Amino acid sequence: MFSKVIISDDLGSISQGVLSVLGNLSITNVTQVQYCDDAYLKISKAILDQEPFELLITDLSFIADHRDQKYKSGEELVAALKQQNPDLKIIVYSVEDRLQKVRVLVNKHNIDGYVCKGRRGLIELDQAIVTTYQNGQYLSPQVQQALSPKSNLEIDDYDILLIKLLSNGLSQEQIREQLKIDNISPNSLSTIEKKLNKLRIQFKANNAIHLVAIVKDLGLI
Amino acid sequence: MFSKVIISDDLGSISQGVLSVLGNLSITNVTQVQYCDDAYLKISKAILDQEPFELLITDLSFIADHRDQKYKSGEELVAALKQQNPDLKIIVYSVEDRLQKVRVLVNKHNIDGYVCKGRRGLIELDQAIVTTYQNGQYLSPQVQQALSPKSNLEIDDYDILLIKLLSNGLSQEQIREQLKIDNISPNSLSTIEKKLNKLRIQFKANNAIHLVAIVKDLGLI
DNA sequence: TAAGTCATTACGGGAAACCGTAAAATACAT
DNA sequence: ATGTATTTTACGGTTTCCCGTAATGACTTA
User: Fold this and answer.
1) How far lies A2's CA from each of A6, A52, A77, A199, in Å?
2) How far is Cα of residue B59 from the mean position of the Cα atoms in its chain?
3) Cβ of A34 under 8 Å from any chain B Cβ?
4) Which CATH number characterizes residue A74's domain?
5) What pLDDT, in 10s, does the model give residues B74-96?
6) Please, what is the end-to-end C-alpha distance for chain B in angstroms?
7) Is residue A211 within 8 Å of A163, Cβ to Cβ?
8) pLDDT under 70 in chain A at which residues?
9) Is B213 at the interface with chain A, CB within 8 A?
10) Cα separation, B95 vs B113, whole angstroms
11) pTM of the predicted model over 0.70
12) CB contact under 8 A, B119 and A17
C-alpha cells in the first residue's frame, strides 16, 4: 500500500474524514496542507530529499484569502504536478460532478482517480486509493460516463469559448473581433451565429440569454 | 451548554469535523442524519418523547438520490422547523456565502447562526455554538454585512423577478405578458426596459446576457 | 477527375433589444 | 388645492440578434 501521502483541502473538516480512511488502510505517513502552493512545495521538496510522496488527494476549489497563491485551484496544481512528475498518483476528491470537468482532468491531466464528495464519498475514496495503488483508474459511479464516448454531446472547447465570451458581455460582432485577435478560426460572424444557433437547439434554449443561463447552471462555464 | 444536538449533513466527512468540535465543548449526546426528512422526523419524535433537541446544525444543499424527500434542502427544513418549533436553535453550516441567502435565512426563518465552511469553519462553528447557547446570534465574518442595512443595493424582488424571467428565456415582450397574467405591476414594455437598463448600469453589464451571467454568479438568482 | 458531403462565409429580411425623449399617471409636499 | 417630483407608459430610431438561403472552399470517395 502507499506509504507516503499528502492531502490538499482547504476545509479542515473534510481532511479529517480522509484521514480516517487512510488510517483504515494503515497509511500513517500523511501530510495535510490547506493551500495548493504548499502542496506543490512539499511535493517538490520531498523529491529533492529522495523521499517523494506517492499519492496526492486534492480538492478542486480553494477559497481565496489574503495569501496570494500561484496555484489557485486544484486543477492548476494537478496540471503542474503531473507534467513535472508523472509518477505521482493523484486522486481528486471534490463535490464537483460536472462531466466536462472530469473529462478534462482525466484526459488532459491524466489524474488517476476522481471521487465525488457525497454520502458514499469516503467509501469510494477507499476504493479509489486501492485501485490507484494497483495502477488502475477509479471514477465515482456518477461521473463514469464522463469517459464513455457515447456521452459525446458534441460540444467542444470552441463552443464553450463562444458561450463564455457571450457571458462576458461581448456581442457577436465583438466575439468575431476577439477570435481574430486570438487567431482562432472559424471567426466569421455567420459561423458564430450558426454555432450559437446549434447550441441553442441542443440545450433547448429560447435565446442567447437562456443559453448562457442554462450552460451556467450546468457548470460548463 | 447544550446537552442534546442533531447534525444534518449529507457529506459524512464533514459531520466528523463537526463532531470533534462538539466533543471539545463536552457535548456527547449527538445525533447525525444525512437526510433532511430524517432530521425532521427525529426532531419531531424527540419533542413527543419530552426529550427535545436543543440545537440543530445543518447544511443547506443535499444531493438528491433515490430516496424521495419531502424537505429537499436545508432551507426547507429550517423553514418548517422554526415555524413549528421556535425554541429549537438552528445553526446553518454551509459553503454558501451569498448574502442574499443568508439574509433570507436570518430575517425570514430566524436562524440563530450562520457559519461558512472554510478554513476557519470549525473555529467559527465553535464560537457560533457558544454564542447561540447564550441566546445570541452568530454570523461568519464574511457574511456579517448581509444584515447591515447599508449594504442595501436597492435591488428589490421585482428586479430579481425580471432577471429571473429573462434567464428563463422569456423575451421582454413575454415578460410583459407574464407580469400581466400574474397581476404584477408595473408591466409595460417600456418600464421593463428601463428597469433592466438600470440594472445593467448597476452591475456594469454590457447587455442582458452579461447581466444574467453576473447576477447568476452573485447567486441572486 | 468528378461528384458529393461538410464546414465556412456572405448576405438580407424580420424580430428583439437598446436608447433617448416625452407624455401621462401617481405620489407627495406645502 | 396646487405645484413638484417620481413613476409609469408610449413612441421612434438605431443596433444587435435571429433565421433562412446561397455561394465558396476543403475534403472524401468513387
Assistant:
1) 11, 11, 21, 45
2) 9
3) yes
4) 3.40.50.2300
5) 999 999 999 999 999 999 998 87
6) 38
7) yes
8) 12-16, 119, 145-154, 219
9) yes
10) 14
11) no
12) no
